[in-house]
Amino acid sequence: MYLPVSLKSKHPSGTKTFGLPDIHPIFLQFFLAASVSISFSICWQMEGRIWEDINKDILVNVLGRVGMELLLLDVPFVCKSWYKASREPQCWEHLIFPTFIKPDDIDDLWWEPEIPDRGFIDRLEMTYQENLSATAFVKFIVNRSCGNATIIKLPGGCTEEALEYVANECPRLKGLAVGSYNEFINGIIVKFISKWKYLEMLKLGKYDLKEIIPQIGLHCNNLIWLSAPYTYIGKDEASALVSSLSKLKYLDLHGGDFEKEALVMILQGCKQLVHLDIRQSFGFDDDDAEILELASHIPAFKCEGSIITPDWLDDDHIDHDDLVYDSSYFD
After folding, report:
1. Which residues, 6 or more positions from 241, have their beta carbon under 8 angstroms from its beta carbon?
2. DSSP string of 19-79?
3. Worst-scoring range by mean pLDDT, 20-24, 206-210, 283-287?
4. pLDDT for the residue 44
5. Are 254 and 227 in contact (CB under 8 A)?
6. Per-residue pLDDT tens for 21-33?
7. How many CB atoms lie within 10 A of CB 92?
8. How far is CA 176 from CA 91, 167, 197, 199, 293, in A?
9. Main-chain dihedrals φ then ψ at residue 247, nearest 5 degrees
10. Burial letters 215-241, b for 16+ CB under 10 A, else e
11. Quick one: how far is CA 84 from the chain centroid?
């Protein structure tokens, strides 16, 4: 199928001409998304017709699945009808932000994380000829949704101001992932959890669960999926999970530091679990007979690679003569 299209579109950085080959990458992504929601044949039958003639409802349905980068930097420049469709709030219900955006108050980072979507950020900065502000960018994208956002993955470098804006402007949120490089946000998210009464899925970073879980249980009655990897799970945390979130079905605590008694409490108290991931954790062995027996009712139980004590804490692996203690680290 040949697409005889050469488009001249006003671009924020000037006029660009887009000569589309037989299948432009954006259409490959379009077809991929379309196959999720409608029959591929519906799109394939467009041969000989103008892309602007695609039914608007179908177009919006598909564009809502292609991702933030294409919606911002490719779709609007295909044709006028696609530009208009890309501005529909229904296209902005799932907001998956870049992994990391440089924080607002830092001009130069001494450390720049390696991130898989660095190209997206570079394209944004090149297109709009300015450095990204995490707060301004989050607000800009959230405004596109007009309150319809149901899933959000925050960017690393997110600020308290941006999180508060999300809390106030996204009351229909069902899924929230705090994202990597957001330890600061982890510490304040408890202030806003009451805003998301329809939340069903929540992914946190390393967090003091005993502080936030009671608030989740109080305000988020629909929550069935919780991810908090690399977190300490003691008796207090386990007690909070069992008493406040006993209806959880999916729980991801991989890489955690467990008290074995706490894990036993979770296995005995969270009766509705169908998925529990505690792989690569500390505090118990992955072949512990008691743990395996208590978890036997969970269809998807994952504990591979878990051990009681990591090697680097084992006295047999530590040369105490090599240890140097410097009190200045604690000043």
Report:
1. 209, 213, 248, 251, 266, 269, 270
2. E--SS-HHHHHHHHHHHHHS-HHHHHTTTTS-GGGS-HHHHHHHHTTS-HHHHHHTGGGT-
3. 20-24
4. 38
5. no
6. 343 444 444 444 4
7. 21
8. 18, 11, 12, 8, 33
9. -90, 5
10. bbbeebeebbbbbbbebbbbebbbbbb
11. 27
Contacts for 112 with CB less than 8 Å, ≥ 6 apart: none
Closest by CA to 169, choosing from 57, 75, 104, 92, is: 92
Nearest-5° Cα angle at 182, 181 to 185:
175
Which pLDDT belongs to residue 247? 86
Can you tell me which residue has the tokens 């992932």? 177
**Pair 211, 240: CB distance under 8 Å:** no
User: Is the pLDDT assigned to residue 284 strictly greater than 80?
Assistant: yes
How confident is the prediction for the chain on average, in pLDDT?
Answer: 75
Of 119-123, 176-180, 282-286, 318-322, which has the strongest mean pLDDT?
282-286
Cα separation, 203 vs 298, in Å, equals 21
Structure tokens at 297: 């009712």
Contact 283, 260 (CB under 8 A): yes
Residue with more model confidence, 216 or 309: 216
Check whether 85 has a pLDDT greater than 70.
yes
The C-alpha atoms of residue 201 and residue 129 are separated, in whole angstroms, by: 36
Which tokens belong to 220?
């988020």
Angle of CA points 58, 61, 66, to nearest 5°: 120
Residue that has been written with the tokens 């500390």 in this structure? 282
Q: Measured between alpha carbons, how far is residue 289 from residues 30, 295, 311 in Å? A: 49, 10, 22
Question: In terms of DSSP bridges, do strands 151-153 and 175-177 run parallel, antiparallel, or are they unpaired?
Answer: parallel
Q: Is the dihedral of CA 127, 150, 162, 142 positive or negative?
A: positive
The H helix count followed by the E strand count for the chain is: 13, 12
Read off the tokens for 113: 């994380």
Q: In the chain, at which residue ranges do the beta strands (DSSP E only) sit? A: 6-11, 14-19, 94-96, 151-153, 175-177, 201-203, 225-227, 232-233, 250-252, 257-258, 275-277, 300-302
Of 195, 192, 231, 196, nearest to 210 by C-alpha is 231
